[in-house]
Amino acid sequence: MLSEFSLIDRYFAQRARANTRRAALGIGDDCALIAPAAGEMLAVSTDMLVEGRHFFPDVDPHALGHKALAVNLSDLAAMGAQPLGFTLAFALPRPEERWLEAFSAGMFELADRHDCELMGGDTTAGPLNLCLTVFGTVRQDLALRRDAAQPGDDIWVSGTPGDARAGLAFLREEWPHAPMDAADAAYFRAALEYPQPRVALGLALRGVARAALDISDGLAGDLRHILVRSRVNATIDVDALPVSEALARLPRELQLQCALAGGDDYELCFTAAPQRREAVAAAAQQAGVRVTRIGTINAPDAQALPSTQPIIAWRDGTGAPLNLTLQGFDHFHAD
User: Fold this and answer.
1) Which of 4, 27, 151, 260 has its CA 20 to 30 A from that of 299?
2) What DSSP state is assigned to residue 265?
């Protein structure tokens, strides 16, 4: 029977020690020691995934291992940071070898792809709960912050937001009136369970983009974080939103709900000066990621109070206003 320390050593510590290159001192001591390169800052982010809130109890453990790290790497991507390593703390109801083998494989496959090493962590018995902290490095003057958007900036988005939300709808059987064929359902499910953090794009956008974040709680809700921090407004061309071929086969109202208010996409939303459009296109090509210009940053009303909430003006392709009421995901007000 696996003990706490034997499961850590067998499924996590042995592989982590074999790949230790970035940490000055990794697993095996009371703390990891991390030495960033000269002139660089540490970028640190933590995410928690709770069974029944962020993933289904019967989720494939390989997919869960991938996603647990992917959502953290996505935060580094949004900051334009180079991944260094991560810590893993989790509660597990019981130590099942097949589950641990698949979970650790999914996690380490993604970690190896981004040269991001496991540096420490903790485990205990309890309801399944995962908490990862990821570390990266970035020069302070190149970090992509939420408070740097300026009036006149273009608003861009990577990939095709909305696919993950459609995957959730498929698993919940939410849309009996809009059936999906098997291929589309598999595509949506993969988007939900295997998000791809846009690390290469974030790195390529350093010195090109101004403000950025990742879309974890829906484009409409997450964009507001940039607007609030930068004290600006925005206009979005809804018809410019990129949608996948699979999502385009759903009714238009479902497309918009998924693309604008869905969550779990982990694409990047960022702003850049119009003069940087060619540089944005070059960064996207370098990263091998599709990017689409979907709107513009606007100056706030001169009479508005500092506490006034930002305004997103939704338009169609002709510039006509659309009456959309959209809200991003809220962990304390979610069904």
Assistant:
1) 260
2) -
Mapping DSSP onto H, E and C, the string for 79-104 reads HCCEEEEEEEEEEECCCCHHHHHHHH
pLDDT of residue 169: 92
CATH code of 4-142, in short, is 3.30.1330.10
Say yes or no to pLDDT of 2 above 70.
Answer: no
Three-state DSSP class for 138? Answer: strand
Residue with the two structure tokens 């600006």: 232
Query: In the CATH hierarchy, which fold is given to the domain comprising 154-315?
Result: Phosphoribosyl-aminoimidazole Synthetase; Chain A, domain 2 (3.90.650)
Q: Residue ranges for the binding site?
A: 30, 45-47, 54, 75, 121-122, 146, 214, 216-217, 264, 329
List the binding residues for substrate.
54, 264, 329
The domain spans of the chain are: 4-142, 154-315
- What Cα–Cα distance (Å) separates residue 326 from each residue in 81, 185, 223, 257, 298? 30, 25, 12, 8, 19
Binding-site residue positions for ATP: 121-122, 146, 216
Residue-wise pLDDT for 203-237, tens only, equals: 999 999 999 999 999 999 999 999 999 999 999 99
Instruction: Say if strands 23-25 and 33-34 run parallel, antiparallel, or are unpaired.
Output: antiparallel
Tell me how far apart the alpha carbons of residues 241 and 162 are, in angstroms, rounded to a whole number: 10
Give the type of residue at 32: A
pTM over 0.85? The answer is yes
Both structure tokens of 48: 């928690």
Q: Which amino acids are annotated as binding site for Mg(2+), given as ranges? A: 30, 45-47, 75, 122, 214, 217
Q: Is the pLDDT of residue 48 over 70?
A: yes
Tell me if domain 4-142 and domain 154-315 are identical in fold.
no
- Taking the C-alpha atoms of residue 241 and residue 293, their distance in angstroms, rounded to an integer, is 8
As a whole number of angstroms, the distance between CA 282 and CA 205 comes to: 9
Q: What's the CA gap between 243 and 335, in Å, rounded? A: 25
Cα angle 33, 45, 269 (rounded to 5 degrees) comes to 140
Angstrom distance (rounded) from CA 237 to CA 254? 17
* Alpha-carbon gap, residue 216 to 211, rounded angstroms: 16
